[in-house]
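Appendix B. Chain record.
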Amino acid sequence: MLRIATWNINGLRSFTQSQLKEALDQIDADIICLQETKLTGDVIDEQIVTFDGYNSFFSFSRVRSGYSGVATLCRSNLVPVKAEEGLSEVLAPEKCQDLVECYGSTKLSPDRLKQLDSEGRAVLTQFVLSDGKPLTVINVYCPRADPDRYEERLAFKLDFYHLLEARAHALVEAGGHVVVLGDLNTSHKPIDHCDPGDLEEFQSNLGRLWMDRVVTSCAADEGRLQLVDAFRQVHPDMREAFTCWNTQKRARATNYGTRIDYILLSAALSNSLVATDIMAHVLGSDHCPVRAQLEVQLASDPVPLPSLCSRFLVVGKQQKLSAFFAPQAKPSSKEEPKKPCAQAKNVAPKQTSLTAFIQKRPRLETESAAPNVVAAPRNAGAADAWRAMLSGPRPPPLCSGHKEPSVQHTVKKPGPNFNRLFYACARGEGHKDNPESRCNFFQWAPKK
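Structure tokens predicted for this chain:
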């Protein structure tokens, strides 16, 4: 059995080493394809990325630091015979003997191909089955049509889809099997979306039209490229099977999400599919892993590591992946002795606590011991101000739907209310008919 998984990790450096190890152990796959690693060449050039028990193959963005990026992890006893970065040949090193090749035909210009591969969105690793046929795993992080640059990024996304299709088709035409997996940034059918809205508008989306042409839910005719949706082949009618949620709106708690992470198999390979599952219990990202199990056997002949392996990226001393992670504070066994001050002059006095200040306050006029003095009336406004300050901030208002404390938010959209504070229901976003989801409560916070 061969277990293959995909996971948009949303930033590799946001994990500690122990957190990542725990997540990979939970996924428990022979090949794990990660997207949105956000590790770029300016970080990697002087360090090697290694994972315990895995060899890794990275593609990094060449246009922005800390952006995009994918990585394919293969168990140490499962060495690919070839590995390559990018969907076209523009990134292929000269005289490299272990490239996957089979690029297919496309009408895209060389400049466009360079643009499409410059964001670090694809890594290919190739294995050989026991019957001698090649099996190519294409790990992709497909572009998103960013609303701020919608027309430009939509065209970029569709060209990326076109290039992906051409490469997969060429590999199948050459007599091999293909697995395309990763974050496709499109939910295919209305069943894959928590709120598809108008179905005609939903299905006319250009990304979905591409998926309609290329992706099917069952074994298809081998005469043309048809990629089988592994999850839908096993679970054709399962609803609310989502892989991505808006964590800022706590939508994961109500399972109000989309399915945009896929494992797609070439038609002949889909006959080997045994099981597939969405691993929503694995946390750490706004996506969750998806895993498939194939009944195939790889050739057992030992092969050298392909040159793309991250072991060969090191310049100087080899370092492990732990160097990239957020440091974990280590408890100290004993407190370090304080060093004496070099000068005792002009030392600022320690800040007096509020309690000590009140205890040492000047006597009010009503407490004056001077005879024949009429005390001034207490200032009620000042007393209320002190009382409000000492009692802390006001509690948030209760939401109208659940009568629970609301949560304060800040308006981030540019406009007249930018940076203004407001209160909303603390529960996660969800369907209106779900009583556990967020109610419509909204209230502006008082202006300071």
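Further analysis of this model is presented in Appendix C.
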